[in-house]
Amino acid sequence: MEETGVRILVVDDERAIRRFLRASLSAHGHTILEAAAGREALSAVAEQRPDIIFLDLGLPDMDGVEVTRQIREWSDTPIIILSVRDREADKIAALEAGADDYLVKPFGMGELMVRMRAVLRRVWQAHRQEAVFQSGELKVDYTRRRVWVGEREVNLTPTEYDLLKLLAQNAGKVLTHPHMIQKIWGSDLIGADHLLRVNISNLRKKLEADPARPQYILTEAAVGYRLRLE
């Protein structure tokens, strides 16, 4: 992934702030997603898979620190706090909840861009330590989010890719249904069991020569799934 074309979720209840960030960040080639409240932000993270989150603390339905804490229960998406609160206690609370950085309003766009690039580089460098997974003919390139079976590139939805990545990073290990649901959707999503089954079925159709007799994504009856490691 490059440092242009980043999917950014802006979470702020002030329309003017969202409009300003959308205009400024879009000019740099980034895709901007928006949420005006905490619960809306939690849904957006699960459904839209942003690369980074810009989060205000003073949201109308829940505090941004709690939003950060809930996101960190199942996602490692980078979070930069953008807040008028400049007390040390507020900064410590947000960072201890799992935020990656903290910027006090008002801020300059130059500083925000530098902070964003620094956070993203740190995350991507950690991911590049094992940038490609391979088992048999299945290959997953974590850096470019691309998947192949043999010479054939496979097009996956964001959720299908995240499921495959989760399985690949734990190849050979059985992942329980609750663990996978927590990592991909969070624990409160209604119908998550059905979503998991549907997405695994779709993955098998795209990856397996015979989806009825899978060679890669194996079912552990009544427990979960395991990606075969060859």
TrEMBL record:
Protein name: Fis family transcriptional regulator
Lineage, top ranks: Bacteria, Bacillati, Chloroflexota, Anaerolineae, Anaerolineales
Predominant cellular place of this UniProt entry's protein: cytoplasm
One Gene Ontology MF term: identical protein binding
PANTHER family: KDP OPERON TRANSCRIPTIONAL REGULATORY PROTEIN KDPE, REGULATOR OF RPOS
Domain of life: Bacteria
GO terms under cellular component: cytosol; protein-DNA complex
Boundaries of every Response regulatory domain copy: 7-120
Listed CDD domains: REC_OmpR_KdpE-like, trans_reg_C
Native source species: Levilinea saccharolytica
GO biological process: positive regulation of DNA-templated transcription
Pfam annotation, one family: Trans_reg_C
Keyword Phosphoprotein among UniProt keywords: yes
